[in-house]
Amino acid sequence: MNSDLDLRDNLRFPGRSVVKLARELGFIPSAIPRGRVVLTPEQVLSGVERLWSQDDRIIDAFEQAFADYIGVPHAVGVGSAKAGLAMLLRAMGAQPGQGVIVAGYNVPEVPAVLKALGMRVLAADIDPTNYNIAPTQVVRYAKQAEFLIITHLYGNPAPLNVLMDIAHAYGLKVLEDCAQALGAGFDGKRLGAHGNPCIFSFGMMKNPTALGGGMVTTPDPNIARGIRDQRAGGKALSGTEMARKLLSGVLLSAGTSPVVFPWLFPGLKVMERGASDLVYRALKSRPAQWEQGILDLDALDLGMHPAQAAIGLAGLGHVDRLTGARQRMVRALKTALQGNEGIGLPGEVPGARPAWTNFVVTVDNRQVVKKRMLDCGFDTTWGYLAAIDRIAHAGQCPNARRMEQKNLYLPVGATRNTGIIERMADCLVQAVRDGKA
Fold it and tell me: How far apart are CA 333 and CA 426, in angstroms?
């Protein structure tokens, strides 16, 4: 049975969920948030128990469980993916002045970290069919670089085999940005298990969330030791800071739930109609200078808080179930949208098994489309990624710039109901037609 609920077991009424029945009877309005913050009671209680704990054994337990899940010998918990990237590059021997090839459509924090390390950012344009770094563009800058960062954008694997062949041919050191790709696979293995150091993120909307923090995985014990040594000399969140994060997480988890969000939606709709990026700007926690490629590495938390480790450990067992649900919803949505003019769908390279942490399409007249989707009860967004060639040392990325202007996130992770997915597809098709009128 299809259901868009997480609270399944204790909300059943003769074979159907109470909330679903109430929605069908019109007692609860229908609206879908741009994303769900999935925070289970077990995760909340595990976090509360360790808010002011100094016991790092839970971090060790999370690291071991995560390494086992990925299929690698070493995993190191870190304060954030940004901190993990900086520490990983140092542990891999990165030096100021060296070149790093990165995807031209990216989070601004990546080039900001590289520039803070004194490295040269070489922005390689993306493949417009799957939004990941284009192998031909990697070749273009390979002779100027010592490192290659392979980002698996939105949880959709990049052509890892092709990119690794290029890296070997040019002697590039490779690391993978799997911040959005936990649960994804390539050529029969989980991403993270292909022999390269990798970075994962546990931000608010990630699967699983740990309300922040990240993980670096590696087959190399020397790299793992180098990251641990750096982490030992850095700071982590205080108990009070962690308590604030936990409270925010609980509120967002409730606010994006199928029971609460429909009642909040009318107010959000009014705000979004007044300024289409108002909610994004209100929720954005990124300092403005990061978008300009400026970041102070000394201000980053290097260590993971025990509460984050406890929350992440409690959520790790749900990753495959939630990933499978998103994969089913994406398959249904792609089938419904296939062949509709004016809607660009992300492709998949051979051997890829996407996690679809986000499902992003491209459309023209994006603001018109977004407002029409709001009228249908679907909250969409265009996210926080950018064409980073503006702040890179080298690179021209026309495909990334087009992506920046045309991308639209569809909320496939906020429902498990294929009927809602079909309605979403119908609304999007009509919205795109309206945008052309």
Answer: 10
Residue 177's beta-bridge partner residues?
151, 199
Query: Cα dist. 188→197, 261, 351 in Å?
Result: 18, 38, 7
Q: Does domain 15-437 have CATH number 3.30.360.10?
A: no
pLDDT tens by residue, 102-152: 999 999 999 999 999 999 999 999 999 999 999 999 999 999 999 999 999
Q: Does the pLDDT of residue 1 top 60, yes or no?
A: no
Question: Which value, to the nearest 10 degrees, does the dihedral of the CA atoms of residues 400, 401, 405, 410 take?
Answer: 10
Tokens representing 268? 């959000």
Beta bridge partners of 352: 186
Q: What is the DSSP letter of 217?
A: E
Which alpha helices (DSSP H) does 80-127 contain, by range?
Answer: 81-91, 109-116
- Decide the pairing of beta strands 120-124 and 99-103: parallel
Type of residue at 149:
I
Backbone dihedral region for residue 93 (phi beyond 0: left; psi -120 to 50: alpha; all else: beta):
left
| Rounded CA separation 250/272 (Å) | 23
Sequence-distant (≥ 6) Cβ neighbours of residue 346 within 8 angstroms:
129, 130, 131, 154, 156, 359, 360, 361
Predicted confidence (pLDDT) per residue in 314-363, tens digit: 999 999 999 999 999 999 999 999 999 999 999 999 999 999 999 999 99
Q: CB 324: neighbour CB atoms within 10 A?
A: 12
Q: In whole angstroms, what is the distance from residue 30 CA to residue 378 CA?
A: 9
Residue boundaries of the structural domains of the chain: 15-437
